[in-house]
Structures are given as structure tokens and as C-alpha cells.
Description:
rod-shaped; mainly alpha
Amino acid sequence: MGDQNYYEKLGVTEDATFDEIQEARNRLLQQYSGDSKHLEVVEAAYDAILMERLRMRQEGKIKVPEGIRFAERLSQAPPQEKPAPTKKSPEWIQRLIDQPSITDIAVPGIIFAGLSALSILATTASVQALQLALIAGVGASFFFLYRKEKRFGRAVLLTAIGLIIGLIVGGIIGSVLLSQLSSVGVSVEQFSTVLTFVLLWVISSFLR
């Protein structure tokens, strides 16, 4: 049954089990680690024994476990699943959205909060006073937007959009909350102005 030298090289008998052959091979590989010549001898003997036993299996003489692995057959790593591509926002949104620093958020916030406080705390909510506050807010919004990319047209457009939407939405919401606003001494015009300042702060801080 085969060449007994192969069994002797692994230090096992011809009737050794597959587990014993595997253990003997692993032990010798560890023993001769770094000695390529001895490692080749051990692998060759191991493969020769397995080939002999596989041949005998085909002839129906023995049963060979399904888990046998030849040394020269490198185990292939299972294919790695590619991570699902992250969905990126449209390019025009990426060009519009800014990633401001804390300072870029805080400075405009302080200015618009001050303008809002002046609009609400004014003893007389005159149209002229609110108009002056809005002019200052529009100027601040334009300044913060323009200094980011030095694009005059975009700064004017975004500021105008914020101003128009803020006044319209503020007027609508203020009319709905008229009774509540009146109870705290705030007019619809004051509420609309403050809402506009909030919108201008968002635009000047988070857009570019």
C-alpha cells in the first residue's frame, strides 16, 4: 500500500487515521519552520499519502473525509462583498451647501440675534425702524455670503430669496398668531422681521 517512506517521513504508520496524519504534518511544519528543504519534504510526503488514499477511495477500499485539503491548493478567501455605494447628493446641492465653522455660525448668529432683539424691544414698532433693521440684516447677509466665494450675483440672489420668503411666510404666520402676538406686545411686522432674520442667518451661515 503505497510507499512506506512517506509514512516514515511523517512519523506515522500506514493504518494511521486522517486526523493523525494531519496532526503529524502540522507538528513537523511547526518543528521545521523556516527550513524550506524540510518543509518541502513534509508537504510532499503528506500529498503523496493523500493521493494514495484518494485513489483507494475511488476503488472503494477506504472512505476519505470530505474536508481533505492538499498543500498546493491554496484556500481562496471568500469574495468580499463590495460596500454599497453611498448615495451622494446632487452636485448643485453640494455647490450650494457650506460646511461652516463654529465661528462662521456664531458671528452671524450674534448679529441677527441683536437685530431681532432691537426689532422686538423697540418701544414703537414703526415701519421706519423695522425697515432700517431689515436693511442692516440684508447687508449682513450679503457680506457673509459674498466673503465666502466672492460671487456678487449669488450673494445678492440668496439674500433676496431669504428676505422675500421671510417676509411672506412671517406675515402669513403672524396673521394666524395675531391674538397671541398681541398678548405679548409684538406686532405682525415685528414677528415677520424676526423670522426674516432667522432665515437670513441660516442662509448666510449654511449656504455659499
